[in-house]
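To: structure desk
From: M.T.
Subject: fold request, one chain
Message: Could you run this one when you get a chance? Sequence is below, nothing fancy, just the single chain.
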Amino acid sequence: MPAKGKHRRQKSTLITRGLVAAGTGGAVVALPLIGATGAHAAEQAAPAAVSGTVIAAAQVQAKAAPAAKAAAPTTYSVVAGDYLSKIAADHDVAGGWKRLYADNRQVVGENPSLILPGMKLTLGAKNPAKAAAPKPAAPAAAPKAAPKAAVKAAPKATAKATEQTRASRSAERAAAPAAAAPAASGWVAPVSGGVSTPYRASGSMWSSGYHTGADFIASSGTTVRAVGAGTVVSAGWSGAYGNEVVIQHADGNYSQYAHLSSLAVSAGQSVSGGQQIGLSGSTGNSTGPHLHFEIRTSPSYGADIDPLAYLRQHGVSI
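Reply: Done. Structure tokens follow.
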């Protein structure tokens, strides 16, 4: 007879627990599988995200590249003896001297062959600068009163400085080359170099069929001197002759100096024999630096006479 108030647990409870445990175990096993699947999906998505980031960065760099290339243009400072075709050739300027002139026209001015030392030219880019106007000279400051001791010592110091200046000038005169001094007649050769092409040489390269002057050997930047005293009739650009100077002399004849790289005189100016009038170059219709020299009976082309014979008549040894 069963006891009152006592009950036995059914075994089904253990089975239920087992099922719950099995279910719980299954859940535990299933969760890592789900996590692994999510992680695998994240790994697949990650390269795509990184790739998108790299592409976006590359696009930003590609857009920024042109700005980086647009660096400041190269600037060249003109020195004595320079001319545009020489600068363009030395620095490989695309388009040659014409492009160089077009880019720097505001600085150079209307005459492409008149460039001055110190000019700043841009190479391969437009020059935004303009020729600077000369600044007015600053007024001199009023001298301060010198101390008494300095006033007493001034006469001796001044006398000593004067002696040194005289000695320095004497040394400079003694060291000056004899070629710079004019002959007894006051006439000189235009440059110290010899003659490369004589007067009246024939050839199709000259419009008249012959050479109307004498070409002297002179590298670019060589000092060119007036052969004798006279008055400058013209100084500037003259077509095929490039930069030229024409001087009228007392005997009514004219001397002409062509293909100059720079000028040192202006029309109407009086000059003496041996005075510098410019620098040699290769402006105009020229195959290279030299000095084309003529003697004419009028200031115009076509009135030429033998320039070497003329100089010899005036005591110049050539």
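Reply (cont.): Residues 12-69 form the longest helix (58 residues). Let me know if you need anything else for the meeting.
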